[in-house]
Design goal:
Length: 155
């Protein structure tokens, strides 16, 4: 009976995922008001080799982004005090261009018109909830592959 959890764990963790953080090192801010969703997202990121800072609403996200330079902000959309769209606009206005993080919407609303709204709100991408490891890994690869190409082109 004990080998089953090991088999399930191996099946749930695609090979090489734990090396993602060494290949694509990132400072990540997770902005999520739901504690359960915070835990789920944090554990997924840990399995990929990342540690995250957490903000519980848009106001905290803006404050955190002005104190530390993040590479990636995973931004929930519906939050109290300041929603993810407003927080993204604020971060884009406050930070200079060279300090702008990639901002990815985390949302259960994955309809095409909603995706367009997030992308038109100065977000770089979106990730539908519930968040799963393969999608998170693919998102990081996709969002930061472009940047690696730009950096490699400058060398």
């Amino acid at each position: 009976v004990e080998p089953l959890p090991q088999v399930a764990q191996k099946a749930a963790t695609p090979a090489g995922d734990s090396s993602l953080a060494s290949r694509v090192p990132l400072d990540i801010l997770l902005v999520e008001d739901n504690v359960t969703n915070q835990k789920v997202a944090s554990r997924i990121l840990e399995r990929l080799g990342y540690q995250t800072d957490i903000a519980a609403n848009g106001l905290q996200a803006v404050a955190a982004a002005t104190k530390k330079q993040y590479d990636l902000v995973l931004m929930d959309i519906q939050m109290p005090e300041m929603d993810g769209v407003a927080a993204t606009k604020e971060i884009r206005q406050i930070l200079p261009a060279e300090q702008q993080p990639k901002i990815v919407a985390l949302t259960a609303n994955a309809m095409k018109h909603e995706q367009d709204l997030y992308l038109n709100s100065q977000m770089d991408d979106f990730l539908p909830k519930p968040i799963r490891l393969p999608e998170m890994s693919a998102l990081i690869e996709r969002v930061f592959a472009e940047e690696e190409g730009v950096e490699n082109g400058r060398s």
